User: Fold Hydantoin utilization protein B from Acerihabitans arboris.
Amino acid sequence: MAIDGRNLQILANYCAAAADAMAFTLMRTAHSTFVKETEDFSCQIVSRAGLAFASPRSFGAPWYGGIDYAPVLALIDDYQDGDICITNDAYAGNVATHSPDIHIWKPVFHQGAIACFVVGHIHNTDVGGAVPASLSRSLTDIVQEGLRIPPLKIVTGGKLNQEVARIMRLNVRAPEQNWGDFNAQLASVNIGERKVHEIIDRFGIDDFLLGIESILDYAERQARAIIKTIPDGEYFYADYADEDGENGYPCRIAVTLRVRGDSLELDYTGSDPQLMSSLNMPTGGRERHPLALVGVTYVLATLDRSLLLNAGTLRPTRAILPPGTIMNCEAPAAVGMRSLTCAMSQIATVGAFALAMPHRLPANSPGGNSIINIRTVDRHNRIVVASLGPVGGGAGGTPRHDGPDGSGGLSAFLKNTPIEISEAEVPILFNRYGLVADSAGAGEYRGGLATLMEFVVSAPNTTVTARNRNRSVFSSAGAAGGKPGRTSSFLTNPGRYNAVGHGNTDVIACGPGDVIRIVGPGAGGYGPARQRAAQAVLRDWQCGFISLEAAARDYGVVIRDGAVDPAQTDRLRGVMAADDPGDHFDVGDARRNFEAVWSPARYALLTAFLAAAPVIWRHFLKHKVFAAVAAGTHGEQPLERQMDRLFADLRREFPAIYGG
Assistant:
């Protein structure tokens, strides 16, 4: 049949349904809660050239919808029918981007020739390494982050490579769980292969191959049409992770968005150098790496919900990813926490687009849920390694409605794990898992509320990890007069004599009776809070979302005897009406104070200085510069002279850096 508009849509639906079938198979047969409940996995069908053209439509991790498998496909010399390949090496093709993400791919043959590939990944709860769950910002090189599998055939002609399988099982903390998940992956690609054969039988191989390219081309045309609605110009936005390492300095992710007709450019120059921690992103400098462009995908899909999401969607966009920086690191840099950096790059991207379209896009989401994992023992003294689910915040308030609570925004399709399942599989007891009152940024449309998880540990030598801990210092920004969200916290034994606050620490040891409480950050509000309907504020109070004090302080709404007091509300709001919203984004006091010292001009000088140094020195030099600026030893001269003198002092102190 001809691949015209109608039949192209039919083919696209068939391909998406095949990807759905792969995902359902994986989700329903996986062993770990992180796959079967949180759904941190992906499934795609990719062209012979490696471009994804079909993905699940409503679950899994949509970060990978625009993925290009070409670099890893090329690392296998010869494909035969029945082969399945595997890798989790972040530096082999830059498709797998940290060790827990095990990617597999299978060629689909038709009459002796490859028609396409069926591919996918899962995030394993643990792949060995220095810490339970394998990931921590404290790790300094990728060797510490667990087992690495180079691209190879794990199945050859339908026969499993038992030697590699034994290595995989031997080097992880929960081998049966991992092997169960891996078998679910195998089932997923086998189902995908069968579904592709059914599609080819229906459409014919020629129309199937032509249809793949047409699907990609159609998504590109859609994306270009959306981009044309965005005002041409150059827009800059930056945001910060709280720390660039354990007890470190803030970590900057900066992007300059350039809109030119129907094309986009995202320039990440000005982002922090490659770090001696695990926040680095191994993009390989690829200008359409999906992790660098997730924010673009989200924005375009927000502006047109009919947009097809595949590799064609990203064709009008290119990213500039300077080498030796946090956005394009070099081996052997640790990369386990690249998901936090990716989340912050999404916030920066959406922020830049919001400056171009301030009345179409929301305030900041918190970015980066804390993924809570535990390593403990059960009553039979068997080791248990499990994910307890994400703890994060909601989405930013929008120009038309409140941000969703507890999720949304940049959370993709990832889901929470019901506490009944966690308690059945892990020897802990939950005290609370729910939303946090007064955590959302105030606004005409408030931000989404944060979540809270609190549980009691029952065994000694237990380790809890909270991957992606962030926003305990810098708030999620409000927009258009809206206020920032509340910051996060991580506590052991809250309210007791032995209470400990952990800040952004992401790995803690605990024992029987210890209470662990993780509170996520709230999202920013949109629009002046005094303009929020008083009845909406009353409803928030009735639902337990805000306190009486916050209703009066943040919204100017006085509630007495369960009802709004109109006179007192008018009085308070009359005072609030004099507030000047200032810039489009209200980034909060912590960031304002930081940027009063680390202005864009000072950061630009730092960026140029670090770019001239060898990669291995950059994180060290950044810390030396930050410490000198904090000490004020070069503060008696104009900014440029201050920094020039500081840099000259460092060159003299470390002449080996520059060949001296």
